[in-house]
Amino acid sequence: MPKQRLASYVGFALKSNSVVFGWDNLKKSYKKVFGVLIDTFASENTKSQVKYFCETRKIALKEIKNLDEIFGTINCKVVGLTNKELSKQILECED
Questions:
Q1: For every one of its 95 residues, what pLDDT tens digit does the chain have, with 9 covering 90 and above?
Q2: Smallest Cα–Cα separation from 13: which of 91, 76, 65, 77?
Q3: How far is CA 55 from its chain centroid?
Q4: Alpha carbons 40 and 48: distance in angstroms, whole number
Q5: Which CATH number is 2-92's, of 3.40.50.720, 3.30.110.10, 3.30.1330.30, 2.60.40.10?
Q6: Which residues of 4-26 are buried (b: 16+ CB within 10 A; e: fewer)?
């Protein structure tokens, strides 16, 4: 059930164009990002950069397994969420 909820919220975020894919795009649009998802398989360097980025800007961060499968992308390790309510719901979903 929790995976189904996460998948449906992700679908809503994609349809409403409330997603920023990739670390470079996230850095460019940080003012409108309310939550960040990072893949557990991301490199340690990327994880530390994203963690520092989120801590300094007070953005919620969650680590998720197989992020690229959930969003239907290839080799995407960092995703930013730009809708406040959807990001809250996605970040609260259990793994």
A1: 467 888 889 889 999 999 999 999 999 987 889 999 999 999 999 999 999 999 999 999 999 988 888 888 888 899 999 999 999 998 888 65
A2: 91
A3: 15
A4: 12
A5: 3.30.1330.30
A6: eebeebbeebeeeebbbeebeeb
